[in-house]
Specification:
Layout lengths: L2 H15 L7 H14 L7 E8 L2 E6 L4 E6 L5 E5 L1
Antiparallel strand pairs: 1-2, 2-3, 3-4
Helix pairs in contact: 1-2
């Protein structure tokens, strides 16, 4: 999939993914797993997620990788390895 298409998909899906309390923990973990995978980062499966603030999470993967997943100032989804 081309990079611009990935960005469009992420921008369209991320507000729902990061909606917060309306999602159960399992749904949030699945959505963060999908987001990290779409960004091309190794994870496998998110086993826990901690909400830092609106649209800002720390996701811990089964393979022990940790990522901060958030929307940056340009409105793009970013996952930074912690």
């Amino acid at each position: 999939m081309r990079k611009p298409m990935k960005n469009r998909i992420l921008i369209a899906v991320l507000p729902a993914i990061l909606a917060g309390p309306t999602f159960g923990a399992d749904t949030l973990a699945k959505d963060l797993t999908s987001t990290i995978a779409l960004l091309g980062l190794p994870c496998g499966q998110v086993v826990s997620a901690q909400r830092l603030k609106d649209n800002d999470y720390i996701a811990t993967c089964a393979d022990k990788n940790r990522y901060r997943v958030y929307i940056n100032a340009e409105g793009r989804v970013v996952a930074q390895k912690q």
